[in-house]
Amino acid sequence: MIHIRPDGQGAVEVEAKVGILKDKHTGQRLQLPVLVETILTPNSIDSRFESNMTLAQHKHFNSILNNLKTFSAQPGHTSAPLEYTHLHLVDTFYQPDSTRDKDKVRVTRDEKSGTVLECMQKVRLGNLDVYSPKRAADWRISVNMEIPVPPPIGTATLTRKKDRMSYAHEEFTIDLTQVTSSTSPTSKSEVLHELELEVARPDYLLSTASKRGDPNVSETERNAFDELIRAFVNNARILVRNAGEGWQ
Amino acid sequence: MIHIRPDGQGAVEVEAKVGILKDKHTGQRLQLPVLVETILTPNSIDSRFESNMTLAQHKHFNSILNNLKTFSAQPGHTSAPLEYTHLHLVDTFYQPDSTRDKDKVRVTRDEKSGTVLECMQKVRLGNLDVYSPKRAADWRISVNMEIPVPPPIGTATLTRKKDRMSYAHEEFTIDLTQVTSSTSPTSKSEVLHELELEVARPDYLLSTASKRGDPNVSETERNAFDELIRAFVNNARILVRNAGEGWQ
To answer: What is the C-alpha to C-alpha distance for residues A138 and B196, in angstroms, rounded to an integer?
Structure first.
């Protein structure tokens, strides 16, 4: 799944997006002759993954996640409560310095204060598309490296405003985001709604991976990576199971 | 999955066969663009399931099952020992009395004594084909009704000699069978080698099904059906995982 491992520092980002796998020829949702969830062989089908839901779906997930938050905060609830943050961010994208380098540089600022929060180059390591014939939506697992870079010089090629409701639960973050993209201040902007699940602590993920199956550590440590991935997949499936019709 | 439920008495037969899903056009093993085991949508693909393995594969499975039998009989082994029976059977098939009725009548005799052991009409209720891209073989789950019928009159249309090594383990039977078929005493016979897993006690299966999720029974009883199916699927997967190349 992971094709390249770039040198240098950086954090591994592991995320699942909820969306629709579309047949590129028909523009319709992919149809495969299988009854249950399955992983597509990479590059075997002429399909694309689109993670844009309707505003109604966005509200539906917002309401589900808010209910979960309320429910999980009640005394006597067994699992950890969901934590909630409302973020207003602006991403600007720049061409990389080197022409060899195809990955854009992203600067993320707090919308209100203008403070730079992150300056990153995101390098795609691999995707897995998961086809879910019993559900209204499919999902995609993406693994990327996020490499900190110096602030870029030049003009941004794309600006993306993100109104993000971010829910933290145990080792995961669930982000429900309204994205408004524009290529210039005068061009017409495009509004998208996205739902992502992310492993909250990439360092922890890598540390569990390094101890996977190690006979010199405790059983809990030895199994922690598999347990984390199991929980990640479970959470992604719960999101997908709650998806209704309303994917664009 | 089950399309019809015939009236009258009879036992439900639930079995998994190991074999190859073949594309009817190419005659080759089916190729789907997925990475993991999945269930095919019935009647969506022009494929057939062939459960015939080479003699070498047959010997391979025989050796695995004999080793398991020896291993499971050792003192201190945690699960129940495998029981083994070597059966020599002859099936003869007859056209049904009624022309409305497409299901043949099968008479099973002990080869040596000629004693009639069973006189059955097998009614197919449904199949599920399981495609296993990571394994050398696929598998098919079949659910049938076996209805006892009076001994038929007339001439047999097909005779099938079965040399069967039957291993019983907990709630399942694993049958490794060499089948020699002939349509008449003078015609050339065909030899096939098959591997099947069967739920040993259909009555128990139905009794657990009737208590599935019932709040008035114990948790063990309530979950017994799911547990039985889980073990059935696990056992089928273990057989498929042990399949090598050698399917015809």
So the answer is: 35
